[in-house]
């Protein structure tokens, strides 16, 4: 299982009028996963690796907000401008704004390679809304991977994260350093600390996670979908651990018999 995925995720990042540069190949059967876990646990890092290994598309709501931020202000709706303010403070964007954004991108849930939802759902209301949308679209989830890591390591990961201004690749100043300090290995872009990785925003995000997102663990456990995975070790070790655990307990979705 090693499906290289060169997709630029344009339909997800820019909205349904955009076309993905290289739509993922049809993967039969495919994985449709939700990645859960606190901010900084490594969901985005794992989504990148799992996408390469499983061929599934990485659908991150945080990436949609950051992509909107990098476009000029005149292309932003007032709801998006407000959403970015919530994001910078470390609080959640209102459910209605997130839901509208996901719903208009629902075509991505039919991606031929499957999908990896990262950062959505993030509240019980979003979990219920996703269930309903999947039912309407006649799609089912394969599993929900819940990454677990001690708080002290989470804070260290967030405090040292650096993101490329251009290609959005993610590094860490000590754990995953770029070859030249402050310069992206992939494209030479400038590396910067995310605005919501300031200490005061990190504290807010962790508190918001416990209050609003952690209840989704029981929500998915009670539906028999929860797969807890330890997020310690190298990214490659965690990715291998995830795939082994998935294959032992869950099945990918057979797209032939679904509809
Ligand atoms: P989002 O972008 O989803 O952020 P998050 O959930 O807070 O998660 P992060 O991206 O911070 O961390 P991650 O788990 O992906 O870790 P990463 O792989 O980068 O959301 C941002 C904001 O948008 C929210 O706060 C909210 O305002 C808004 N938002 C988004 N979705 C929303 C929704 N559905 N509803 C409402 N609001 C929403 O790794 C972190 C660091 O650790 C990196 O530096 C990485 O290099 C390093 N690292 C990763 N793995 C390892 C490892 N194994 N060993 C050592 N270092 C590692």
Plain-language structure description:
The protein is an alpha/beta fold and 259 residues long. 41% of the residues lie in helices and 14% in strands. The chain has 10 helices and 8 strands. It has helices at residues 10-13, 43-54, 61-70, 78-89, 95-104, 124-136, 151-159, 199-213, 215-221, 235-249; strands at residues 31-36, 57-60, 114-118, 143-148, 161-164, 170-172, 191-192, 226-230. The strands form 2 sheets. The protein has a 5-stranded parallel beta sheet with strand order 2-3-1-4-8, sandwiched between helices. It has a 3-stranded antiparallel beta sheet with strand order 6-5-7. Strand 5 and strand 6 (170-172) form a beta hairpin. It is globular. The protein starts with 9 loop residues before the first helix and ends in a 10-residue tail after the last helix. The structure holds BIS(adenosine)-5'-pentaphosphate. BIS(adenosine)-5'-pentaphosphate is lined by residues 39-45, 60-62, 65, 86-87, 90, 92-93, 98, 119-120, 122, 126, 157, 160-161, 170-172, 175-176, 196, 205, 234-235, 238.
Q: Give the integer mean of the pLDDT values.
A: 92
Low-confidence stretches: none
Strand count, sense and barrel status of the largest sheet are:
5 strands, parallel
The percent range for strand residues is: 5-15%
Instruction: List the ligand species.
Output: BIS(adenosine)-5'-pentaphosphate
Strand order of the largest sheet: 2-3-1-4-8
Helix content: 40-55%
- Helix-strand string: HEHEHHHEHEHEEEHHEH
According to DSSP, the number of beta strands is 8
Spatial gap, N to C terminus: 25 Å
Tally of alpha and pi helices: 10
Radius of gyration: 17 Å
The dominant shape is globular
**Structure class:** alpha/beta
């Amino acid at each position: 299982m090693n499906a290289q995925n060169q997709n630029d995720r344009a339909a997800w990042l820019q909205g349904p009028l955009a076309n993905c540069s290289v739509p993922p190949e049809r993967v039969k059967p495919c994985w449709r996963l939700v990645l859960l876990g606190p901010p900084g646990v490594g969901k985005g890092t794992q989504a990148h690796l799992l996408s390469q290994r499983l061929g599934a598309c990485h659908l991150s709501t945080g990436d949609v907000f950051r992509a909107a931020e990098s476009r000029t202000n005149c292309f932003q709706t007032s709801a998006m401008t407000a959403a970015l303010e919530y994001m910078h403070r470390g609080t959640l964007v209102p459910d209605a704004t997130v839901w509208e954004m996901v719903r208009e991108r629902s075509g991505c849930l039919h991606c031929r390679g499957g999908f990896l939802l990262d950062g959505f759902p993030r509240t019980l209301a979003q979990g219920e809304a996703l269930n309903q949308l999947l039912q309407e679209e006649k799609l089912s989830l394969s599993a929900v991977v819940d990454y677990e890591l001690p708080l002290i390591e989470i804070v260290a990961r967030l405090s040292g994260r650096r993101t490329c201004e251009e290609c959005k690749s993610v590094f860490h100043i000590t754990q995953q350093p770029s070859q030249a300090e402050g310069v992206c290995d992939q494209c030479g872009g400038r590396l910067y600390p995310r605005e919501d990785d300031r200490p005061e925003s990190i504290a807010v995000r962790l508190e918001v996670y416990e209050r609003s997102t952690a209840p989704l663990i029981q929500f998915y456990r009670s539906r028999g979908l929860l797969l807890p995975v330890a997020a310690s070790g190298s990214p490659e070790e965690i990715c291998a651990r995830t795939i082994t655990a998935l294959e032992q307990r869950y099945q990918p979705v057979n797209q032939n018999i679904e509809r």
